[in-house]
Design a protein that fits this description.
The chain is an all-alpha fold and about 120 residues long. The chain is elongated, with a radius of gyration of 14 Å.
C-alpha cells in the first residue's frame, strides 16, 4: 500500500479541461472553490471512523471523497482516497495514509487559485 503519492499530479488537467468546456470558466472556478470544504468534511468523517476503529465506515467515507475528488479533477486526492477505500487491510495501515491525505487536501486548496488563473476561470 503506497504512502507516497507525490508522483500523482494534484490535478488531472484533462478532467479540468473537460469541466471547463462543459461548464464554462465562469462556473468552474466557484465549483472548484468548494472542493476544500467537501474534502475537509470527508476528512472529518474518516477521522471519526478511525477514532471508532470502524474500517467499514472509514472506507465508505473514503469512497465519497474518491468520487467527488475524481469528478473535480483532483487526481492525487482521488488516488489517496482510493487507496484508503480499497487497499488498506486494517485501521492501523489506514492511519499511515492520514498524513498524505491531510497534506494533499492542504496542497489542493492552495493550488485552486493558481489552477483557476492558468485555466482562465473566475474563482
Amino acid at each position: 500500500m503506497p504512502t507516497d503519492f507525490s508522483n500523482v499530479p494534484l490535478f488531472d488537467r484533462e478532467q479540468i479541461e473537460l469541466l471547463r468546456e462543459a461548464m464554462g470558466p465562469e462556473d468552474l472556478g466557484p465549483m472548484l472553490a468548494e472542493l476544500p470544504r467537501h474534502a475537509v468534511q470527508s476528512l472529518d468523517a474518516i477521522q471519526a471512523a478511525l477514532t471508532a476503529d470502524d474500517l467499514d465506515q472509514t472506507r465508505r467515507a473514503a469512497h465519497v471523497l474518491r468520487g467527488f475528488a475524481g469528478s473535480f479533477g483532483a487526481a492525487r486526492l482521488a488516488a489517496i482516497a482510493r487507496a484508503i477505500e480499497l487497499e488498506c487491510p486494517s485501521v492501523a495501515v489506514l492511519r499511515q495514509c492520514m498524513p498524505a491525505l491531510v497534506e494533499t487536501i492542504e496542497a489542493t486548496a492552495a493550488a485552486i487559485d493558481e489552477l483557476a488563473a492558468t485555466a482562465g476561470m473566475a474563482s
